[in-house]
Amino acid sequence: MASVGAADAAPDFEQEEATEQTVAMATPEPAESIEPPVEPIALVAPTRLTRAAPMLAEPVQRYRFRDAKPINFGRASPRHLAVHGVDVSRWQGNVNWGKLRAQGANFAYIKATDGGDHLDPMFRKNWRNAHAAGLKRGAYHFFYWCRTAGEQADWFIRNVPRVEGALPPVIDVEWNGESSCKRRPSRQKVLEKMQVFMDKLERHYGQRPIIYTAPDFYRDNLRGAFLDYPFWLRAVAQHPSKVYPGRKWVFWQYSGSGLSHGVRGRIDLNVFHGDERAWRNWVGGRQMVAETE
After folding, report:
1. What is the rounded CA–CA span in Å between residue 197 and residue 204?
2. Which of 42, 69, 83, 252 could disulfide-pair with 272, CB 3.0 to 4.6 Å?
3. Cα 257 to Cα 66: distance, rounded to the nearest angstrom
4. Using alpha carbons only, what angle is made at residue 108 by residues 104 and 114, rounded to the nearest 5 degrees?
5. For strand 267-272 and strand 107-114, is the pairing parallel, antiparallel, or unpaired?
6. Is residue 143 within 8 Å of 185, Cβ to Cβ?
7. From the candidates 17, 35, 164, 174, which is the catalytic residue?
8. CB 97 within 8 A of CB 118
9. Phi-psi bin for 93: left (phi > 0), alpha (psi -120 to 50), beta?
10. Is 48 exposed, middle or buried (0-12, 13-18, 19+ CB in 10 A)?
């Protein structure tokens, strides 16, 4: 979900940020010849449980997507999982959410913000229309390494409403070679910035954020880190277990070349790690403090 946009023109802030709590550093990882340790499951308990998980009114739609560049995942095919969804931004243009839902999109993560001053111009429209079509919706922020974490969190909070039934917010962390910001902070600084951002979102929305990442960024920064956070992993050529050994995940982005009625061009395809019952329980156990949209 690499982002190119107005945030690239943002000023380059040099001030240092202090974390509100110390980020635990990973222990040394075993050599490749040794079986990697299995990390604690990422399906962490929600921050706020207000009632027993309700049954969802919307039925789970069966997978009907096509793929311009299909991959044979073998026995680990995402088609064996029940609950598929998409992520979208302005690059998908005007989405027909009813048609997308009928194609098998049960949830959508919608690009909201990046950096400290850029709002995706399609966010508000997508946010409303995805919900109206019966999809579970969440918002994601593309993290910009040349802005402070605090101002980025404030910008996301300013633009993404707290609404009942929304999915947890997502921080999208990756290296973006097309960005004007060429800074690649140290691993320690990356983890500190992420912690500041995620702490502010968790306090505001009452849900622990999900971390979206790609293989190279994960390798450089996230192996062994944030063990009590849910992960959304990009793995479009192999199963996540091959790309991120030992890491548990909630969502798997298995294609960047999906095709669907309701969308012109290609769209990212994702799947939830669990069956339909697990999905209903997971979604039902998450509750945002509602406010007027």
Report:
1. 11
2. 83
3. 9
4. 150
5. unpaired
6. no
7. 174
8. no
9. left
10. middle
| 174 is annotated as an active-site residue | yes
Q: Are 148 and 13 in contact (CB under 8 A)?
A: yes
**252 DSSP β-pair partners:** 233, 271
| Whether domain 42-50+78-284 has CATH 3.20.20.80 | yes
Encoded tokens for 289:
């403090």
Please tell me the distance from the alpha carbon of residue 216 to that of residue 222, in angstroms, as a whole number.
Answer: 10
Read off the pLDDT of residues 32-71 as tens digits, 9 standing for 90 and up: 333 344 443 344 434 443 343 444 558 999 999 999 999 9
Determine the Cα angle at 158 with ends 156 and 162, to 5°: 85
Residue 224 has pLDDT above 80, yes or no: yes
* Cβ-Cβ contacts under 8 Å for 7 (sequence gap 6 or more): 114, 115, 116, 117, 118, 142, 144, 147
Percent of the chain past pLDDT 90, that is, above it, reads 74
| 180, pLDDT greater than 90 | no
What angle (nearest 5°) sits at the alpha carbon of residue 281, between those of residues 275 and 286? 130
Taking each helix axis from N to C terminus, what angle separates 149-159 and 187-205, rounded to the nearest 10 degrees?
A: 30
| Cβ atoms of 171 and 243 closer than 8 Å | no
The whole-chain average pLDDT of the chain stands at 85
Has residue 16 got a pLDDT over 70?
A: no
